[in-house]
Design a protein that fits this description.
This protein is an all-beta fold and 261 residues long. The protein contains no helices and 23 strands. Belongs to the serine-aspartate repeat-containing protein (SDr) family.
Length: 261
């Protein structure tokens, strides 16, 4: 005897068929269908074809649970009561919530590639993270509805964090602009010396503390990004150091070229 009181030899397979569609009535291809019994044990499994149709079998009369899932859709579970004849079902899968957008530079609107994007819940737990694509785009798929914190940071830009609310169906779009702090940039020029020596450029604050250190590139160019407004000293060192004071305002781009002797 089985749990439902039906002798095993008297049980016969009964077909369960139907169609899986999205909330707009479009058939969902490749949806996974899993039939489980009252204890959660898998009984049968199938997948929808090009028209969203499926077929699977129950081992006999009884109550079962049919679980349907598909990429970019919220899963659905329905109770299936099987008697003596084939059961047909129509299952609707709603589109999964998500978050998407583009990361851009605030001053130029240029997309920022490889920005680090972190999504946390209201407890501060990280839900997901990723890097922005070549066009600054990002996507978090299948995110549960709710309120989250979206934090973005990228080299040479100031980080940004904002609150986003994700709905229950269509993805939420949230673009983010990252501001560039003040910038000191320029070139360090040397006498015509071969081979060209390495040039170290150091940025000091008003107290004489080192803020940043960089190496000038092969053409002598250097840059310090994301700086707070204030007074600094730029020190370029090769054979003999050169010290140049400079003052910058919030968000300013200031050029300072240095001649070494």
């Amino acid at each position: 005897m089985t749990e439902d009181g039906i002798p095993r030899q008297n049980r016969r397979a009964i077909g369960i068929s139907g169609c899986v569609r999205d909330s707009e009535g479009v058939p969902v291809t490749g949806a996974a269908l899993t039939l489980v019994d009252s204890s959660g044990r898998q009984i049968s499994r199938s997948a929808t074809g090009s028209g969203g149709s499926f077929e699977l079998a129950a081992p006999g009369r009884g109550s079962y649970v049919l679980i349907a899932s598909a990429p970019a859709h919220q899963p659905e579970a329905v109770t299936v009561t099987v008697a003596d004849s084939q059961v047909r079902l129509e299952i609707t899968l709603r589109g999964a919530s998500g978050l998407r957008g583009v990361i851009r530079a605030a001053d130029t609107g240029v997309p920022i590639m490889d920005a680090a994007i972190t999504l946390t819940d209201m407890r501060g737990e990280v839900v997901d993270s990723r890097l922005s694509g070549q066009s600054g785009e990002y996507t978090f798929a299948a995110i549960a509805p709710g309120t989250y914190t979206l934090a973005v940071n990228a080299p040479n830009y100031r980080p940004s964090a904002l609150t986003v609310t994700i709905g229950e169906s269509s993805p939420t779009t949230q673009d983010v602009e990252l501001a560039d702090g003040a910038v000191i940039h320029g070139s360090v020029r040397l006498p015509d010396t071969q081979p060209r020596p390495a040039i170290t450029v150091t940025l000091l604050d008003e107290a004489g503390q080192v803020v940043r250190t960089a190496l000038a590139d092969e053409t002598g160019r250097y840059a310090f990004h994301d700086l707070d407004p204030g007074s600094y000293t730029v020190v370029a060192t090769s054979y003999a150091p050169s010290r140049r004071p400079i003052r910058i305002g919030d968000g300013e781009r200031t050029r300072l070229d240095i001649q070494l002797v």
